[in-house]
Amino acid sequence: MWHVGKIIALHDETATARTIILEVPDWPGHIAGQHVDVRLTAADGYSAARSYSIASAPNVDGRIELTIERLPDGEVSPYLTQELTVGDPLELRGPLGGWFVWRANQTEAIQLIAGGSGIVPLMAMIRSRASAGNRAPFRLVYSVREPAAVFYRDELKALSSQDSADSVTYAYTRAAPEDWPRPPGRIDAALIESAAWPSNLGPTCYVCGPTPFVETAARLLIASGHSPDKIRTERFGPTGDRK
Amino acid sequence: MSSHAYDYLDGNAAAGELAKIFTMDVTVAEGQCAHCGETKRFAEAHLYMQCPGVVARCAHCGQVLLRLVSIRDRALLDLSGMTYLSFDTSQLHK
Fold first, then answer.
1. CA A113 to chain centre
2. How far is it, in rounded angstroms, from Cα A13 to Cα A7?
3. A39 touches chain B (CB under 8 A)
4. Assembly ipTM
5. Sheet holding B74-78, edge to edge
6. For residue A240, what pLDDT is reported?
7. CA-CA distance, A209 to A120, in Å (whole number)?
8. CA angle A7, A13, A14 (to 5 degrees)
9. Phi, psi for A136 (deg, rounded to 5)
10. pLDDT per residue over A145-160, tens digit each?
């Protein structure tokens, strides 16, 4: 069940997050939204595993991309973001989780809500839609600390400008660019009202972020009329690496 | 808000640990809570991973649905908090 992938490329997304691209022999293929467990084993046999969402669209060439945020006291993420180099092997298990997924044959409207590095599995959905030529109307609300903390900025800009059915709204929590229409702050009812699909359209909603963020976003969606049955969530841990 | 109130993840996150035991993806199965009778996807349960092993609790009533602990070459699985798990087996025949 564990695969050994090889790192074929790395690049920094932000000052604290790195994307790693792996080639995995015998990779069975994945669905957008799924994750993998990554296992590191020390020379003395001690091992630690963490879960990371796959950022890339499904493909047939056995490649996957992960984007990993470095946590200062993390046990796994500092190694993955600072020490790993091209050519290194990496043990991983997956693809995992068949619930928080978007399949390229879905045609209904989709509302994505990301908090910080919660963008990663949602980016896989956006990429999957683009690579499949799917025309399902997508909207993304991306809550992020400051402009410098945004992942995939250029790609998101390119995708949303070439396709009017695909819109992105940034909601900054600490510092916004000058003249930004919304002052920095956490997501709220007014943001959901103005930037998300209305509930009467019946969109499927995917929410990913730290647990308090997901709780807030899901509560706001339900308060604005969205059915709890149409909201899928993926939380990640308050203290550490994705588990 | 206290950090304690938000120390859980979703049942999704147990997919890898459960795949050690089950051939099908348990996180997409529907399970019924033995305490309150609520039926949900296992992926929607609240998952606690700070303990030795994993504990899944019902998102509706908070009672324990599943416990899984692995120590060396033994895995101990307690499913007494669920009356049943219902799987879609259509993919098995394709």
1. 10
2. 16
3. no
4. 0.89
5. B9-10, B46-48, B54-57, B64-71, B74-78
6. 37
7. 9
8. 130
9. -55, 135
10. 999 999 999 999 988 7
Across the A:B interface, residue pairs with CB atoms under 8 Å apart total: 68
Q: What is the pTM of this model?
A: 0.94
Task: State the best of A51, A54, A229 to mutate against chain B, taking most chain B CBs within 10 Å.
Answer: A51
At A142 the three-state DSSP class reads strand
Give all domains of chain A, ordered by start, each with its CATH number: 2-96 (2.40.30.10), 110-236 (3.40.50.80)
Q: End-to-end CA distance of chain B: give it in Å, rounded.
A: 48
Say yes or no for a CB contact (<8 Å) between B16 and A211: no
The ranges assigned to domains in chain B are: 3-93
Rounded to whole angstroms, how far apart are CA atoms A176 and A193? 20
What was the pLDDT predicted at A177?
Answer: 92
pLDDT-derived band at A164 (thresholds 50, 70, 90) equals: low
Of the partner residues B1, B13, B19, the one whose CB lies closest to the CB of residue A212: B1
Mean pLDDT of A191-214: 96
CA distance A179 to A74: 36
The pLDDT value given to residue B3: 42
